[in-house]
Specification:
Elements (H helix, E strand, L loop, with lengths): L2 H12 L5 H11 L1 H12 L3 H16 L1 H9 L5 H5 L3 H21 L11 H22 L28 H4 L1 H33 L3 H13 L1 H12 L3 H15 L2 H9 L8 H24 L4 E2 L2 E2 H23 L2
Antiparallel strand pairs: 1-2
């Protein structure tokens, strides 16, 4: 059983998702590869790689929804099936924290609280408040929306899916915790090795560290999201698939606080124009899918909703633009 599934088991046993502290723990568990890469890169002073992985990872992980869309249905778009506005709220939180990251990049390095950038601290505070509001919206909705034909699935992973086959890990809390701990250690070590080998590959190939971190490293660290996202849509949990991606993206930039502490200085001011471009790209992709969840395009084109088709085109143009920006400021 993978780390994601053991996290689900622990969440169900202890009701972690009910409390803000539990949400933080679950978010950390889902971002272990990014944590390992960030710590390793920041400790070596490779701030461009750390920032590129965190900011560029948002665009890459949003592209996971294209794969989920293709796996969800041959005839109906993922955003049509979602049937909930909770993922839209998750997307708005992504836009808020990435906007704060962009503003933090413009602050001079001497504007700090100890080694911490005020923007890094603001991102964490905004994320915690956003998660609190999202939990309130889930448990006490102030409105009702009828989504005819939608198939949102479970509202939260703490609810066991009727089609899931119980396993030995699921039947034992102690075993689930043990597997979770071992999986976390393995993931952290793998993430650190990925950063070390990736840094050497980028240097030998003459690839810009920001671009490498935002593409190759971000894609490698997004593999767990691909696995869990595809598994979710195959179980019919369409709302969870979208909300999990947006939720992971909003938490990911909270790791700039950790990067600042490890590096001993604010990381954002040294992030550069490439990361500003990547942040804008991540916001753009998020907005397209948020529009899709609201507008609900029904038709599929080669198994993709029109929003996914637009996202693929935007991402391709975005990477081409990233290369141009890198050359212009290289």
């Amino acid at each position: 059983m993978g780390l994601a599934k053991t996290t689900d088991v622990i969440d169900r046993r202890f009701g972690l998702g009910e409390a803000l502290g539990g949400v933080v723990l679950l978010a950390i568990a889902g971002s272990l590869p990014e944590i390992a890469i960030t710590v390793s890169a920041a400790a070596k002073g490779n701030l461009g790689l750390a920032a590129g992985n965190l900011i560029g990872g948002i665009a890459i992980q949003t592209m996971v929804l294209v794969i989920c869309d293709a796996a969800a249905s041959r005839t109906q778009a993922l955003s049509f099936l979602v049937g909930s506005l909770v993922p839209v709220l998750e997307g708005l939180l992504v836009i808020l924290v990435v906007a704060e990251v962009g503003m933090g990049a413009l602050l001079p390095e001497h504007v700090r609280i100890g080694p911490i950038s005020p923007a890094s601290l603001a991102v964490v505070i905004s994320w915690l408040l956003g998660v609190y509001i999202l939990n309130r919206a889930r448990t006490s909705p102030a409105w009702e929306v009828e989504m005819v034909g939608s198939k949102p699935g479970r509202p939260h992973r703490r609810i066991p899916h009727p089609d899931e086959t119980p396993t030995a890990v699921a039947s034992s809390t102690a075993r689930a915790i043990l597997v979770f701990a071992v999986g976390s250690i393995v993931t952290l070590v793998a993430g650190a090795l990925l950063e070390i080998t990736g840094d050497k590959l980028a240097t030998r190939a003459g690839i810009n560290g920001v671009i490498f971190g935002a593409t190759v490293l971000a894609l490698a660290s997004a593999l767990p999201e691909i696995s869990s996202g595809v598994a979710a849509v195959r179980l019919g949990d369409h709302q969870l698939a979208v909300a999990d991606i947006f939720g992971g993206n909003s938490f990911q930039v909270c790791l700039f606080l950790l990067a600042d502490a490890i590096a001993g200085k604010p990381v954002l001011p040294s992030s550069g124009p490439e990361n500003a471009w990547l942040g804008g790209l991540g916001i753009g992709l998020t907005i397209v899918y948020a529009f899709g969840v609201i507008v609900r395009p029904r038709r599929c084109y080669v198994r993709l909703g029109i929003d996914s088709v637009v996202v693929v085109a935007m991402f391709g143009l975005g990477i081409a633009g990233l290369i141009a920006v890198s050359h212009a400021h290289g």
